[in-house]
Amino acid sequence: MKLSLFLHMERISAEDDQQRLYEEMMQLCEIADQGGLHAIWTGEHHGMNFTIAPNPFINLVDIAHRTRNVRLGTGTIIAPFTHPIRLAGEAAMTDLITGGRLDLGIARGAYAYEYERLMPGMDAWQAGQRMRELVPAIKALWEGDYTHQGEYWNFPATTSSPKPVQTPHPPIWVAARDPNSHDFAVKNGCNVQCTPLHQGDEEIERLIGCFHGACREYLPEKPLKIMLLQHGYVAGDEEDAWQAATEIHRFYNYFGAWFKNQRPVRQGLIQALSEEEIAASNYYSVDAMRKNLAIGCADEVIARLKKYEALGYDEYALWLDNGMTFERKKACLERFIRHVAPEFR
């Protein structure tokens, strides 16, 4: 199982300097590359200072110039927010600039907050239908001279400009949770990205069960891969592990508040949660974080990841957006590289 890093430029407070946060993000990417991790993934979000990521291609090109070997992935492009011709060309240009290191992850999106602003009136089902139309269109545009007559887009014969470096094209990953999404990915020859969020082993087993079921049903022409994206923290000791669980518990309370889309937002920041609101959260409890996520000293994290590997996951991406200070993120990543990664080489 390959080990990777997933992160955005994370901003919780108006006092956080954006330039400093960006440079800290780049430092973590450089550490991941120097430490031999397989890939760096970063996503797309709009108008949310919780995860600043308006165009992952820009970040990946910068990361490419600061690194040597690491793969560079979009985790993920939000399908309904872009035209197939534009995405095919931008992805191909990124593949060209990065020397063929691009992995293209695509999703329907999740935040109603973003839907309201970029595609008013669209719901999650419609976003999923747009993704299902977009993916085969991109592949056809890379082949060239493709005419599209669809429900959401129509255009005459077009060829992606430029074409990607990788042959036949960069690996495509589809974010999937329900069985239908796994079926779509496998039928279209795409790898699968999945995240159980804060949920535990039962959800992790269900997700890979959906993937294996789809592979048995549709018999892809070439082997496909499945990646698990999950928060984790390699701790120095048990006290450190519980501190991490508490910090990630706070992060998930903010994540849930953004997802519900009910709190006021000012200058891109959600109205602060009170300590009482956070403490009262049973759904995102500290105990659940400690139990369900890859949090613990190195031996505990290794044992958990070995279980994921035995289930059949091909890649594990350590999700390092977690509300912690840069120093704690850096220490976690260095321990992950030094103590955990050697067990998977």
From TrEMBL:
Q: Please state what the protein is called.
A: LLM class flavin-dependent oxidoreductase
Limits of the Luciferase-like domain = 8-314
Entry keyword annotation includes rRNA-binding: no
SUPFAM superfamilies reported for this sequence:
Bacterial luciferase-like
Q: Which InterPro entries match?
A: Bact_Lucif_Oxidored, Luciferase-like_dom, Luciferase-like_sf
Q: Name one Pfam family in it.
A: Bac_luciferase
| Claim: Oxidoreductase is one of the keywords in the record | yes
| TM segment ranges | none
- Which UniProt keywords are present, listed alphabetically? Monooxygenase, Oxidoreductase
